[in-house]
Write the structure tokens for this entry.
Amino acid sequence: MTISLKEIWRYRRKDRKRAYTKTARFLIIVFRILYSALLIVSLFIGNLYINLLAVCIGLILILSDIKLFVARFAVRVKELKNRNFKAMKGSRVTIKTEIDNFFLFTYPVCKMFIDIDEGIVLPKEYDKILVFGLKSFSHNIFKYALHCPYRGQYTVGADTIHVWDDLGIRYRRKRFNGKITLTVYPEIFLLRDFDDVKRKEEEQLGLMARDATDYSDSMEIKEYQEQDSMRTIHWKATSRLNKLMSKKYYATQSSRFCIFFDNSLPLLKSQSASRFELIDKLSEACVSVCSFFVGLRIPYNFMYAQGDEVEVAFCDNETDFDGVYYLLASLPFNADNIESHSSLSEFVARADNIRSVVYIFTANITERLLYSIKELNHFGFKVAMVYVADDGLDLVMAEKAKELCHKFMTINVKDDTQESLEAF
């Protein structure tokens, strides 16, 4: 695509017009008209004082124009090398901006505008417009802190500086890449148990087998039966108990849990102020259960909505859990993801080695989701649902889901997440 010089000049004129407010442009025009009138008067009236006044005002205007023109090259902002920041929920993040003035001119008034996404809070001691001055040949460092009360991925920072002239009428706008991507991670609660999984695992395997070829963890000693092979006799146990004992080996557990994280919100909730608390509570509940399974070395499939599709992330160890943790911190919540409710049962049924229980974490129970639960029950799966809701709980849909699910729990945004999950 080729752009002519005429188009470039037209775009620059439009950009310059947007940089000035209507009031500033009006004052500039009035001031220039008055100054032109003063020059005309000084030509016809040979008054020394009027001529000196016209010359002084002209020099001030010329100097102001020169300073603004030089600011285009003299004032520079250091680009950030790292644009991806991580933080825990409830913490503060400090962002640093470095501005240099490489010329002898002094700019007494400069303004830096800080742009913050909704969900990030600027403390009261800070303002979104930072006013400062630049001395000649100076290196300036500006720091401002951001409070992160909610999980999510945000774009924050400053990308515009206004360098004003001495009269406070005009300014030059400088743009720079000063914005960062801030990922706020939800809090993880250390669970003692969830859905009695720990006891069931210990009863079934004793200990999780570390390797499919290592039977030291998955061996059981039982009394010898006639149908058992002679090769399975445990001679040490036989001599110690004075009766024939045989060894029984268990294969390594390869079946996986299935966790569906429903990152959809109804349209009304997506516009309300309480949606951040709702999303936070849902993310904390899900990540705590995921961390609990990793601690027990239980593999699972982490499923989440992506439009009308269901994406899967496989978690087998702590390294895989880091990826799941990032997803739970950065996944967007919107109404479009409701379309995935229709395809949930299909994705679960097509997965390999899925255990009979499917865990669903949701804050949005829809008719499509209820229909998918019916299909999962028809396929032989047991559905356990953790429903996170605020004071506006949809009792009708919650009762319908409770009838279809093997286990059902409602967590209010004001409830304690750890106690609620351990009581599941």
Q: What stands out?
A: Residues 24 and 169 are 6 Å apart (CA to CA). Confidence is low (pLDDT under 50) at residues 1-19, 205-218. The longest helix spans residues 48-74. The radius of gyration is 34 Å.
